[in-house]
Amino acid sequence: QKEVEQNSGPLSVPEGAIASLNCTYSDRVSQSFFWYRQYSGKSPELIMSIYSNGDKEDGRFTAQLNKASQYVSLLIRDSQPSDSATYLCAVNKESNFGNEKLTFGTGTRLTIIP
Amino acid sequence: KAGVTQTPRYLIKTRGQQVTLSCSPISGHRSVSWYQQTPGQGLQFLFEYFSETQRNKGNFPGRFSGRQFSNSRSEMNVSTLELGDSALYLCASSMWTPLHEQYFGPGTRLTVT
Question: Reduced to 3 DSSP states, what percent helix, strand and coil does chain A have, rounded to the nearest 5?
């Protein structure tokens, strides 16, 4: 089982609709969760971080975390063509030895259709 | 505040050579992590440095090494290059630990011929 799993897509969403991206993780002690957006040929850009159960909203983006079910999701409201990109889910965990690292999913390719 | 910078942006090397990549973190950030990104494997963690010490290492061969300087700038070195080392190498910095938000540099595109 992969540590962080995402549906690779492509996910096609009409402009103005809600895009829903999902991510599951295997390690129950994971504590930090991040969503990155990566345009083709560019480096990942941090768009959301979430640390506790529930929803976190930032503009058109909402991150949702459910630690009991070990999933984290990203909702993009009022989708725009500029949202077309690959979205990477990243999960971290704290270690007593200070050797934390981010583990990334393989990403979901999102296409917003005008 | 300036972002993470990486040099060079592009490199072409031949098999057997070695290469050194450089990363300057965001001012005030002390943790620097390195990643390799390829179409087939996605983003793979290489290592993380804090206060000039390697705190964590991914599953890469010993040909991949790194270091961090007292000003938090970091370098990674790949010796005896192989064709499979062709990838985008990304550096990311965070305040204290990768538990916190990490910000990526633009990357160095390495092509091995």
Answer: 5, 55, 40
pLDDT at residue A37, as a whole number? 98
What does the angle CA A59 – CA A65 – CA A71 come to, to the nearest 5 degrees?
125
Q: Chain B residues contacting A, CB < 8 Å?
A: 33, 35, 42-43, 45, 48, 50, 55-56, 58, 88, 90, 92, 97-107
C-beta atoms of A100 and B56 within 8 A? yes
Measured between alpha carbons, how far is residue A100 from residues A19, A33, A93 in Å?
Answer: 31, 13, 6
Say whether A52 sits in a helix, a strand or coil.
coil
Q: Report yes or no: A45 and A37 within 8 Å, Cβ to Cβ.
A: yes
pLDDT tens digits for range A23-82: 999 988 888 999 999 999 999 999 999 999 999 999 999 999 999 999 999 999 999 999
Report yes or no: B99 and B34 within 8 Å, Cβ to Cβ. no
**Contact indicator for A69, A28 with CB cutoff of 8 Å:** no
pLDDT digits (tens, 9 = 90+) for B60-97: 999 999 999 999 999 999 999 999 999 999 999 998 87
